[in-house]
Write a structure and sequence with these properties.
The chain contains 16 helices and 19 strands. By secondary structure, it is an alpha/beta fold. A hairpin with a 5-residue loop joins strand 12 and strand 13. The termini are far apart.
Length: 537
């Protein structure tokens, strides 16, 4: 069977624009003689709509657009299947099936995830009795995203009592409309899942995943086709919109997996590009310190927006080294990015003088350090106000975890690009960028990390070595292990208790941080909601 996969990038709330994207896919399917045109989950309203879905005007617009998309099948033999919110005994996350200009069936999502970044039971009512659709001489089993994610061979235990796939065996074709967010290795997980579920359903399975960045989340596409025996026949591109014709009786293919760095850089690039575009920004600005974190963020911004649309600002202070300024200038030159210097030493001195009668200055203390960071934040926000640039923050996950960052200072900005990338992984990504030559200066990569806010300062004056710190953070934050368990794995108790204490005490900072792009299975923000005021260690 010939199927058209519309791996599109729906924009949340762009109902008419999303409908037009669906119609383009249907037209392509008709030109290429496809019987089915498949589009992603909630393609009409965009995913995730969050509380927009409670707006009656949005739901009415979605219903109207769903009918307009159905009309695009009137003059052809295409069966179009696309996601749309639907009111039927409550609000549903639904797949609309259209044929010959009419909506001939609507099938609703059965399994509503309420873990990680998902909270679908807040919005939708589940389907209790999944049914095959008979349309155009075909029997089609329609599933929506999570309906597949209940395979006993892949998960320690079923999250759900009902298995939709088991209810839908024997169809000519099974389809899945998906909005599955990225994390490293997710594409490989999906291949195993789709293969297993196609074999269980005894039917070819076509899986259409949306692509694009929506706020924190990045959707990587990588849509799939499997035959009825579970052989993978095709995988679409990651991080790119694609409309492709596939055959459900083709030859099995081997799909190579990209490495961690390639995948994560692709996700971060897409996340920056779409966040900027969907929030109305064409340009970005960031503070370029000569350190490795800001170097990585600038390299990603150039990939996402183009060098001509990025501005790098050096803001040397009283303790900035000459080498850092030189390294920052070299990187800007290597990337072709405009580079400006706005010194802050005099500004910080005036602030200290003005505060002197209230809080006498103590050279090098944390107050002076924070004044420097906040002076830099003020400079970047002023540039943003005047020139309309999106401010990109440059802090990594390790720093954000333990609060090694300054509110209203280096945390100022509209998007935290690497807030879900540990410091040790920052080095991995920079190594990948430099694989064919030193785009990021060698000195930037090799020098000890430092905020340069005090004389001869290094990060390790305040923090454990990053490999040790990141190992503890992965266990505590991502695996949610307790202190005793982490100590039992070989880490020093006093150090573990100190790190955990820093993580807990820094919740108030993360509550005020810019949105961060999610590229792990447990990121700060939407997928990890912790109380600020609490005493559990």
């Amino acid at each position: 069977m010939r199927v058209c996969i519309g791996q599109i990038a729906p924009i949340v709330g762009d109902v008419v624009g999303n409908g037009e994207r669906c119609r383009e896919v249907i037209a392509h399917a008709a030109r290429e003689g496809a019987r089915v045109a498949l589009l992603p989950e909630l393609a009409i309203c965009g995913y995730p709509p969050l509380d927009l879905i409670f707006r009656r005007d949005l739901l009415a617009a979605c219903r109207e657009e769903a009918e307009a998309v159905a009309a695009a099948t009137r003059e052809n033999d295409v069966i179009a299947i696309y996601g749309c919110p639907w009111e039927a005994g409550g609000l549903r996350n639904s797949a609309v099936v259209a044929y010959r200009g009419e909506i001939v069936a609507v099938r609703h999502k059965t399994l509503l995830p309420t873990y990680d970044v998902f909270d679908e039971s807040r919005y939708f009512v589940p389907e209790a009795s999944p049914r095959i659709v008979e349309v155009g001489g075909l029997s089609i089993a329609v599933t929506v995203c999570e309906d597949l994610w209940n395979e006993p061979g892949m998960f320690p235990a079923h999250r759900y009592a009902l298995d939709p796939v088991a209810c839908l065996t024997g169809a000519d074709l099974m389809v899945n409309l998906s909005a599955s967010p990225f994390h490293p290795g997710k594409a490989a997980d999906r291949r195993r899942l789709v293969s297993a579920q196609a074999a269980q359903a005894r039917a070819p399975l076509v899986y259409c995943n949306q692509v694009g960045g929506n706020d924190h989340l990045v959707f990587d596409g990588a849509s799939l086709v499997s035959d009825a025996q579970g052989n993978i026949l095709a995988q679409l591109a990651q991080f790119e919109a694609e409309v492709t014709i596939v055959e459900t009786d083709g030859e099995a293919v081997a799909v190579p997996d990209p490495g961690y760095a390639e995948e994560v850089l692709g996700a971060l690039t897409l996340g920056v590009r779409d966040y900027a575009a969907r929030c109305g920004f064409k340009t970005a600005v960031l503070g370029l310190s000569g350190g490795i974190d800001s170097a990585l963020v600038l390299a990603i911004a150039v990939r996402a927006l183009g060098a001509q649309n990025c501005l790098a600002v050096g803001m040397p202070g009283p303790y900035s080294s000459e080498g850092s300024v030189v390294d920052a200038a070299a990187l800007a030159k290597n990337l072709g990015v405009p580079w400006q210097i706005v010194p802050i030493t005099e500004t910080v001195g005036r602030l200290e003088a003005a505060l002197g009668t209230v809080i006498p200055p103590v050279p090098g203390d944390v107050t002076e350090q924070n004044l420097q960071a906040r002076a830099r934040g003020t400079v970047l926000m002023a540039i943003s106000n005047r020139l309309g640039h999106l401010v990109l923050t440059t802090g990594n996950k390790s720093e954000l975890a333990v609060g090694y960052c300054t509110l209203y200072g280096d945390m100022c900005g509209g998007l935290a690009v690497i807030a879900d990338v540990y410091k040790t992984d920052v080095y991995r990504l920079c190594g990948y960028i430099n694989r064919d030559g030193p785009v990021i200066p060698v000195a930037t990569v090799q020098k000890p990390p430092s905020a340069e806010l005090a004389p001869n300062q290094t990060d390790q004056d305040s923090l454990p070595p990053y490999p040790v710190l990141d190992a503890i953070l992965r266990l505590y934050v991502e695996q949610q292990r307790g202190i005793d368990e982490i100590v039992g794995l070989g880490h020093d108790r006093a150090l573990v208790e100190r790190v955990v204490g820093l993580v807990v005490r820094s919740e108030y900072k993360r509550a005020q941080a810019a949105p961060g792009l999610r590229v792990s299975q447990r990121a700060f923000g939407i997928g990890r909601r912790m109380p600020v005021a609490q005493r559990w260690r």
